[in-house]
Amino acid sequence: MVQIYNNTDEINTVAADLFVESAQKAIAAKGKFTAVLTGGSSPAGIYKLLASDAYKNKIDWSKVYIFWGDERWVPLNDELSNAKMSYSTLLSHVPIPQENIFEMYKDGVTPEEYAAEYEKSIRNILGEEGKFDLILLGMGDDGHTASLFPGEAVLEEQTKWVDAYYLAPQKMHRITLTAPLINKAEKIVVVAFGEKKVHALKEVTTGEYNPTLYPMQLIKPVSGELLFLVDKVAAGTN
Going from the N-terminus, what domains does the chain have, and what CATH number goes with each? Predict the structure, then answer.
């Protein structure tokens, strides 16, 4: 389902409201809320809004568990780190226990070793069902999401929940949730805005099915809801 808004401020508000709504619903139903954050520049406005006085007190952060959809294999203090951005905009500003935060990086192990460890952490919190309450995703200009990049072997993964690999075009390792795990979620919210997203959004939502070229097409919830929050520019209606 594609929802079109006038600008990024409107998108940020809708996304923050969805986060709060999902958190309140999950905590009321089962005593905890499991969420997956996304990196890049797109979600920064959402995170800042959630950390604001108008929003942060609407959630019992002691019952929130935070994971990431993907990460560049860099230390947490690196400017390229998704976790660093998430801390600076949100997590350092709300009363969430540190043990409830699962960063996608660890010193002293290989990315592949930590992918297996990260999967165990997910299973410990979510159980064998592996169903997150809410997953936030971005979409690249090339139609990738998380670290599911065009043409990479990770697109074929059916068994692992978390995978790591060397992304040659970027000359770095990436660690990512896989499509089968993402598709288990209760709600998946994709944020995309700006002129650079026009082509990918059109191909992903209305084009021929070709996930090798447009990996976002792999995201098809098993029983949950998929929402695209986009602006008029990305939707090509402006």
Answer: 2-174+184-203+219-231 (3.40.50.1360)
